[in-house]
TrEMBL record:
Keywords: Calcium, Hydrolase, Metal-binding. GO terms for molecular function: arylsulfatase activity; metal ion binding. It comes from Natronincola ferrireducens. Residues 5-388 form the Sulfatase N-terminal domain. Gene3D superfamilies: Alkaline Phosphatase, subunit A. InterPro entries: Alkaline_phosphatase_core_sf, Sulfatase, Sulfatase_CS, Sulfatase_N. Belongs to the sulfatase family. This is Arylsulfatase A.
Length: 495
């Protein structure tokens, strides 16, 4: 197959994922993602470059870890001084289309040779001209959300949007940021929700491309704002979890013993007066279950929207030579480590592990389940490899996944790195992580370091860092991390 493939990249935001293997009960329903995985390959050990939106999104664009591309927090916005895969695709003859959330530093997707719809900064789709035009064309009302619970966060009490979030109230997000800490239900048709708004825009573009038939390859990327909170699924998706129990999460009652102190300062439900997590959680699991169900229903809703895009691709016959990738930017700490939500300055499995499925008819054999270590920085390298090109203006940290899934090679890395520079609120936290086999080591500057046996302790409750029996394992993990740091020119020295 010599013709360059089309490329579909579906990118969710902030998705609860790794908990699925542990709760032994309800798991989010992802029929469309699962179908894609069955048609190609699913990866079990994928780690984001960093568990924070802006920095890891720039890693997806550049194939670089944050310590190199320079965006270490959501709102540190250095100019783009490194090659972006979208521009490289355009130079290779691709037509690029981008729909949805940007949140990857200055500008937006149209600054990188893309057509479509994207928004500077975090963005709120519900106040854009594109959304206004969409609801008019489809004769839809604007999205309305009925609030069922508001998370008690003192720091937000004076912000206008927070004052509007009252239990039982109908709410429309009209501010510049729409990441409210609340759950509820979208009472208008599902097509009014941002996920279906974006899916419909993408489907319209696919229809135009099918009519053009100019033989030029295209890249279409869709970045949903969900399933990041606020969790406002429609009743249709909530009903899928109505009669299902959600067992208590394994680290829900953790007292954070052996953890770095900043675990106490990250987002919890609710905050204490000193802005620290309350241990034990004053919110009982029965109430937490409803929050988790809303999160799961939101995941299923976004899955349905993503499935629309893939179905439209097949309906139009555009799937014959198309690489499809579906993933998310980072995970979600929901209900973990004493009652956290969102994410924080830590590198727990809940926030660093992410889903990934790929298919390419005729190139990627179906039904594969891969356990090799994969990173966010591999995604753009893989896309460019499929397009027959590569990054040329600067070295990158990622590797193409294509030789791994096409069977061209069995050789692959034995460990994987991730990093964080903190959540960006308050003090900076500098951490580096390495995972190899059963073990995970986390270096944090000026704080307690961490060592876990993920096989025996998947919830990371027992920090082995001071256990002398693990000294040799610790030395090996540190040496592995130093190799990654050397390879990626990481200026932070752990030893």
């Amino acid at each position: 197959m010599n013709k360059k493939p089309n490329i579909i990249f579906i990118h969710n935001d902030h998705q609860a994922y790794y908990r699925w293997g542990w709760d032994q009960g309800t798991k989010p329903k992802r029929p469309n993602f699962d179908k894609l995985a069955q048609e190609g390959a699913e990866f079990n050990n994928v780690y984001c470059a960093t568990p924070l939106c802006g920095p890891t999104r720039r890693s997806v664009l550049t194939g670089l870890f944050p310590h190199t591309h320079g965006q270490t927090h959501n709102y540190t916005d250095p100019e783009y001084n490194h090659e972006v895969y979208l521009n490289t695709l355009a130079e290779a003859g691709y037509k690029n289309y981008y729909y949805g959330k940007w949140h990857a530093g200055p500008g937006a997707a149209n600054d990188h040779q893309c057509e479509g719809f994207s928004h500077t900064d975090y963005g709120n789709p519900y106040i854009t001209d594109a959304y206004e035009d969409y609801v008019k064309r489809y004769n839809l009302p604007k999205a309305v959300h009925r609030i069922e619970k508001v998370f008690d966060i003192p720091e937000f009490e004076t912000q206008g949007f927070f004052l509007k979030l009252k239990k039982g109230a109908d709410y429309q997000c009209e501010s510049s940021w729409c990441g409210e800490h609340a759950i509820g239900v979208t009472t208008t048709p599902k097509e009014t929700h941002e996920s279906f708004f974006l899916a419909n825009l993408a489907c319209e573009q696919l229809e135009k491309l099918a009519k053009e038939k100019d033989g030029k390859p295209f890249s279409l990327r869709v970045d949903f704002w969900g399933p990041h909170q606020p969790h406002f699924p429609t009743q249709e998706f909530l009903d899928m979890y109505d009669d299902i129990d959600v067992p208590e999460y394994g680290s829900f009652r953790s007292n954070l013993e052996g953890k770095p102190e900043f675990y106490h300062r990250e987002r919890s439900l609710p905050f204490g007066k000193d802005n620290k997590i309350i241990i034990p959680s004053p919110v009982e699991w029965e109430e937490w279950k409803e929050i988790v169900k809303h999160c799961y229903a939101h995941i299923t809703m976004v899955d349905a929207a993503g499935g629309m895009i893939i179905d439209k691709l097949k309906e139009l016959g555009l799937d014959e030579n198309t690489l499809i990738i579906w993933t998310t930017d980072h995970g979600d700490a929901l209900a973990s480590h004493g009652g956290h939500f969102d994410k924080g300055s830590y590198l727990s499995e809940e926030v660093v592990r992410i889903p990934l499925a790929m298919s390419w008819k005729g190139r990627i054999p179906a039904g594969q389940v891969k356990d090799e270590y994969v990173s966010t920085v591999d995604f753009p390298v893989t896309i460019l490899d499929a397009a027959g090109t590569k990054f040329t203006k600067n070295p990158v940290h990622g590797e193409s996944l294509l030789p791994l899934v096409t069977g061209e090679t069995n050789e692959w890395r034995e460990d994987i790195m991730s990093e964080t520079h903190g959540h960006g609120y308050g003090e900076e936290v500098i951490s580096r992580m390495i995972v190899h086999g059963e073990y995970k080591y986390i270096y944090t500057k000026d704080h307690v370091n961490e060592l876990y046996n993920l096989k025996d302790d998947p919830f990371e409750l027992n920090n082995l860092i001071d256990n002398k029996e693990y000294d040799e394992i610790l030395k090996d993990m540190q040496a592995r991390l130093v190799k990654w740091q050397t390879k990626t020119n990481d200026p932070e020295k752990i030893l």
